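## Example record

The block below lists the input lines for one assembly entry, exactly as stored, with component labels intact.
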Amino acid sequence: MMFQARFHGRGGQGVVTAAEMLSVAAFLEGKHAQAFPSFGSERMGAPVVSFCRISDREIRLREPVLEPDALVIQDPTLLHSVDLFSGLKSDGAVIINSTKDVADLGLDALVERLPAGNIRSVGATELAMKHIGRPLPNAVMLGGLAAMTGVIKLESVIAAIRQAFPGAIGDSNVAAATAAFEVVAANKKDAVSC
Amino acid sequence: MLKQTEGSHAVAEAVGLCRPEVICAYPITPQTHIVEGLGELVKSGHLKGCEYINVESEFAALSVAIGASAAGARAYTATSSQGLLFMAEAVYNASGLGLPIVMTLGNRAIGAPINIWNDHSDAMALRDAGWIQLFAETNQEAVDLHIQAFKLAEILSCPVMVCVDGFILTHAVERIDVPEQELVDAFLPPYEPVQVLDPKDPVSIGAMVGPEAFTEVRYLEHHKQMRALDLIPELSAEFKSIFGRDAGGLVRPYRTEGADTIVVAMGSVNGTIKDVIDDRREAGDKIGCLSICSFRPFPLEEVRAELLGVRRIVVLEKSLAVGLGGVLASHVRMALRGRNQLVYTLIAGLGGRPILKKSLSAFLSKVEAEPHADVHFLDLKNDIVEREIERASQQRRSGPTAENVLKHIGSPMAGLV
Amino acid sequence: MNIIKFYQKGTYTVGNRLVSEEERTTQSSQERTNSITCGHRACQGCGEALGARYAIDSAMRATNNQLIAVNATGCLEVFTTPYPETSWQIPWIHSLFGNAAAVATGVAAAQRIKGRDNVRVIAQGGDGGTTDIGFGCLSGMFERNDDVLYICYDNQAYMNTGVQRSSATPPAARTATTPPVGPEPGNVFGTGKNVPLIAMAHNIPYVATAAVADLRDLEAKVTKAMGIRGARYIHILVPCPLGWGSAAHDTVRVARLAVESGIFPLFEAEHGVVTNSTAIRRQVPVADYLLAQRRFAHLFKKGKPVDDRAGRLQAMADENIRRYNLLRGEETDR
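Predicted structure tokens for the full assembly:
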């Protein structure tokens, strides 16, 4: 079993930390995980990509994730400026940080070719503002990803978040991530493709 | 203790466990997280009995380590690329004086053009300076090699460079077992210097040596590295008996039994290569790989033994001997001296270009047809190269090569990789 | 200390026999360590051999013989360690040309970490290794306030390699790379680096200048420096008969002319502020100093200046006199 996720966002949004937290969540479940950034010139606001692989066995591969099973898009402004969906598996999952419905994001072609319910949008920044008080959607998106793919459990995401952010900040991130998980899990059953 | 942590951080912890006494640090991407980690360990009081000195250049960093080591303290520093070159004089000085300094080299390409990503050009630039050079395949091995390095350095009184692929390993978060202090103490005793600056017993260190004796001094340096060929496997075995896992050693073969083709490489790319080997073996290809962990001393006999009789050898290296071809490949050919075996040089990953399973597999399929050329560049963009050659031939002032090439490629964010 | 207005006939040296033992110079003592023992290969009349011996023996006395020396590449390193011999009687290391200060930082750190607080460290180099190639490491050591005394033996050029110009070479001086030809023969005006002032700009605990003409002054400064912890710098003028074209027997005299003309001021500073200067006892014209050395010969013809450059050097000396208040019209005890 090898699960590959790719995270897209802009510098300053915690894209690298998101991949790391996902890897910690997998580790806490006894799995092997590898997380690393795309090593660009990091500036605030520049597009950033990070990767996470999860497997039952030792991960030996050292290349970027070219065929992701899941895409986490933390900044919707990237949707039409960078080719985010390159290599996405035919049954891959996409979770986008946006309050808009997927139908309104101009991704009809993608929606067509993926199985129903495989693209979801979650207002992660809004949830972050509500629970954390800062527009940091990275931990929130992990809650949504857990619900969508089931690759890691919510408890593991929570534990990973607490390891990354101690004290009250950890609590608020956990609350926001849990909220995202519940939103995605609730709508999953009657998900339609648009 | 098993942790999910960043490679650099684990290396910092490993170095801390070795009870260093003087650490001198100058920042350079991608080694920064290691020295920051160590700085924090010292400042927080977690790592006791250690002085952490912020120096003003890499040249100063290694010079401080030289002074500390000569005065009997266990000394450590870390650098990459341009920083290694800036301290080049001191690198030769440390080995010439026989000081057991351990240094992490976060492998990074050397400019111009300036490039912060991984390749092995820095290690290759100083391969003949007299330092032992060990290459880590994984972050676990990076941790383990540092522990072995201090012991190796101090037994021989020879400095050791532990090479860890920049970004690919240093900035990757993965599952690493960071050993307990008791185990490290059981393996690594306190530093007992061969020579030391001590008012109770004065010596002069670093005097001039003329034609009458210089050859002998250099020979003895070489002799040390010949001893290392025996000591490195011994330490690896001793490490295994205490820590319970394989790490280090001279070379590491993988599925080479009955192989027609063997891929030889150093460092993290071996992980990707092993995946390719498994895929191709499954498809019926008789193929294996050989990871070289000790580059200096270069294990000529061990490499020869592993590759003898194999039809095709592909040396995949992240270094280019400009004007010649492969560096590692030349070493492998020397190991196979007198033998009529096909050795292909595959230059890959320069300046951080990812080495893709797909590309490697495609190349290996090509190699089965035994093409005539023996130096290949993996994923070279031929059209770009040809266009630039053409442009340069058209007019004298054709502009800087690097900038012209970048213009052809377009925005750096156009592709994801 | 008693001020004894008594000079040995024909010199300006205060005799040791009439002062108490503690006040006698280290060099006059049978107990001196003779840290650089005889047999070294310095040139006849070498000012650096003299200066180093004075300084290191003083430092040994001041530290109760707990001293480690780090040496840059240069004359001192070469003539004290001619393969296969060494004249050093103390622990000594030579690493590279430009890193003496950094190596000393490392040696000092090792002493600290091993709890050997009483063992002190001196870094030493010529002007080349200090003002030029060693400048980066020197500044770093100052900035960190490492517990190192750095001594620069300034003979004002790269002497070991054949008398090439350094940033310590005075204006107008002849060197192999500033030959006395062309429109401005010798080294040009408007260049050069004043490292004592630069050391002061780092606000380190102690900076001093000294010369081999005044043994007592030099020893006092080294002793004082060893009583202080942190980064310290002493800059010693050491004439080089070969490079300066002065007579081998004139080394002390030429150094004295440099001091008494004001061209090389003697002063001390602490944390960036001048605390003390040595008054000139009997001022001499800079020309007397210049005429004693062939490296300035092209400034004169039959003892008279050929242009304004000797005058400009006099102006530099006058500026030093003004700045450090060197003509105080007082009797000095030195």
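The radius of gyration of chain B is 22 Å. Chain B has 15 helices and 16 strands.
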